[in-house]
Amino acid sequence: MKKKTWFGLWCLLLSIMIAGCSGGSGGTAEPGKTSGEEPDQPAAADAVELSFWYGWTGPEAEALEKLIAKWNEAHPEIQVKGLSQSDYQKQLTAITGGNPPDVASQFGQNVVPWGLRGAMMPLDDYIAKDGVDLDDFVPAALSTSQHESATYAIPTAMHVSMLFYNKDILKEAGYDGPPETLGELKEYIKALSIVEDGGRLSRLGLWPGMDAYTFSYAYGGSFYDEAAKQVTPDHEGIQSAIKLSKEIWDQYGSDNLDRFSSGLGQYMSAQNPFFSGKYAMTVDGEWLPTFIKQFAPDLNYGIAPIPYDENHPERKNPGNVTTSVFYIPKGAKHPDASWAFIKWMTEPEQMAEFTAAIGNLPTRTSAFASPLYENVPGFKEFLDYSASENLKSFPATSFTNEYMTEFSAQVDAILRGTVSIEEGLANVKEKIQPLVK
């Protein structure tokens, strides 16, 4: 999922995440985050051919192509041709141009805006006809695909962030475990960062342009007041999260952070800054342990909850839930066949096969017990964390994309000091509130 920078993930997401990814951010976001094909299967002479655009790349695309091949072998009457297409804007261009794919993947935060604007087909008639049990889906995940009485997509993977930490680096600094509170997090970041002469950084405790959504929820933040129909980017909890990032950012300065980030390695490689020790800690999704297994198998790391506000222990285990979904674009030539493929792909067996291969969480509770997850690193930690009552999703509205994009841009400006926190969040409110109507 999520080959991303942190603010890029917010704009998309987390476009990593995904990620991862996942699968998560913008110009000041965490830097560095970035098809396989199976032989064609024999098809019936009059087979329907479906084009399937998906956003996964590399090994994740290979895992998806294996399932496509499995479908094609079992369904000669409907043949699916996959295309790894991670430029999601091209989907919208194809839809508005009248030449969409038959099936596509997306991120959950894009579903309601696209669905309400007619880019996605409602799936409720298909769901009712085939008796798909929506109660089997994790409510927070399903909510990203629904608005009022309409379901516009089926979530196939659920993404949650946790804190990863390098055990060896923490031990060298005298810590026998990860930070538990936000106050401790600030202490750890300062102690674990290495600043050389002239302010040059050789290691960061944690990239200071942190996931503003996750940390806003850690402070009890809320982005939208549904009852009042008001966007609330200036909520006290959101301001607290940005102040935290800004305080850490200013300790090092934009010039030093930019210079440091320019030398960081690619996200999906052994040079990932967390894998290589450039970051002592990182906030990332459930797919990261699978990447560690692939690219840094000897890394001595741990997984911990997101630190909470010590003044509010009732907010322990906070976080932001995002999803990856499948949908039928408006104008698809073979919607019935497209639905048959989506329904099959999101059945527990196939969902478990795909999400286990790429290290994501399934969205169906009946898939949780699949033995396929037994060897997935980090799965238990993330599965347990996904049950937290303090996990939230960004509100699904017709203006979600615009909101997240503007919020990301203003947070970027705040961190770089071109606007104050108050001014930046006021800019968000001024631009987005008129879209509520």
UniProtKB/TrEMBL annotation:
Record keywords, A-Z: Signal
Signal sequence annotation: 1-24
Species the sequence originates in: Paenibacillus ihbetae
Domain of life of the organism encoding this protein: Bacteria
Gene3D superfamilies reported in the protein's UniProt record: Periplasmic binding protein-like II
Protein name per UniProt: ABC transporter substrate-binding protein
Keyword set includes RNA-binding: no
Keyword Signal: yes
